[in-house]
Specification:
about 40% helix; single chain; 17 helices; about 525 residues; 13 strands
Amino acid sequence: MKTHIGATLKISFVLIIGIALLIANLSQSGAKAVSAQSSQERTGRERAMDRIDHIEDGIIRDIPQVPRLCDSMAIQKGKIDIGGCNLYCEQEGEGVPLVLINGGPGGTHHCFHPHFSRVKDFARIIYYDQRGCGLSDYKPDKGYTVAQAVDDLDRLRQSLGIDRWVLLGFSYGGLLAQCYATKYPQNTKGLVLVGSSMGFLDLSPSRDHEFISAQERQKLDQIRATPGLSMAQAVYNLHLNGDWKRQSYYRPSPEGLARMALYEWVQDKDFGRSGPSENEVDLLGAFEGCPIPTLILEGKWDMSWSADKPQRFHKNHPNARLVIFNESAHSIFEDEPEAFFTELRRFLSGLSDVSDEAIKKWKQYLAEYEKTKWEELQKIPEGPMTEQERAAIEEFHQVKVSIEKGEKYKDASTPLHSLLSLISACASKDMEAIRRVRVLYNPNKSYDFDSELREFRSLQIFRAPMPPDNAKEGDIWIIYTKEPDASHLNDALIFILWKGNWMHWGNVGRADAAVQWQLMAAELKKQVLPLLKGQ
């Protein structure tokens, strides 16, 4: 079921679309004038689509000091021991337990203030900071991972004495909410997914730079290249100079921007450096037959994804209700609060318990789904392993042992040989050798030999199909990898043929994308060739 929340003026949806298309096709200067006038007449607030440039002089290092909103709120707050780690938690209101999971990775609960206080009349709201973020303990244990965050969330539920709760996941928090529901469905009363990460491979292009001008992009690049900026200073300067247009509908107020920079992106310095990425999660097909009531809330102008993202996401949650807000971007609860909280109240008030039998049936489906998914992922598009490939992998491991004993290696005639040369160059800290086999994002930046060497030494080859004999300059090829002590496909390393050498560029990032690397080859080539020409 799908519902559209209309604009504040009683204009037909068709007319709104027509105006939007007309504005999009105007020249940039014309679009500014028409949109700005419309925005001022209706709300008095500047929107991203108004395309108005604001470029600051220089870099601002002194962020206006504004207090946390929760400091002045009369709510229950403190740290909750979940066993080996204390998570910062706030609570207010009475009613159905509703835990709010913020975006990121690396964000904090502060993004929900003060908006969600209006829910306290009909729900028990639980705000919290994930491990390694905000005011929670910075204890990575085995690494800050999606799996760890999901398990932490359930331990928080137990520590708070809650039987079953509703999870509201915002952005990346929506990914955590979905993962939680598949692992702990018996503890999940309902799912609310707000501008949520989809949880499966998405090759559609983002629109997040559509409203950012060339002048703003130049300024943003300058800020990103400025050394010595703290996270807060970088966020503050980027958003002051137009970066807010990537995900916001309205331009933030100066006070709101300062508060966001100071309190919404606070994390351990090692956050994100260890453990599997959220990109490795694959939930495509997981919610077929899901009995948990689910509400999907999407902003029409959320530029994080392509325009058809709500429909594609909804397709993976066939039993969910989809609501699209026509005057919102990523943070719907800020852009259209009245409509948003009306929908949330309606959803929470209509919840009923899911039967144990329905949960059991879905868990059985998930077990079979996981088994089938991993079996399919082992079937790489290059077909069964040949004797030539098997011999090449055996040779790789033998030469790798020799390199670890101190021998040097220089050969980039195949991706496997190039990888061995890269390991050798890292071991000997030979920058010239690195340049022959590695695509460098920033050739002038100091190279972290030790970090790269640790990564490559632990690398396990899953498959290494031989590149075609007629490969030409600029062609892409891959080596499939697996986790240490595991037998299934995990990722793929990307190589590009350049001046006779196969050069390592990076990794795909997830197993399901790895087996579809050929679909991305043209885009990968487009990204990497300028780097090589500059190297």
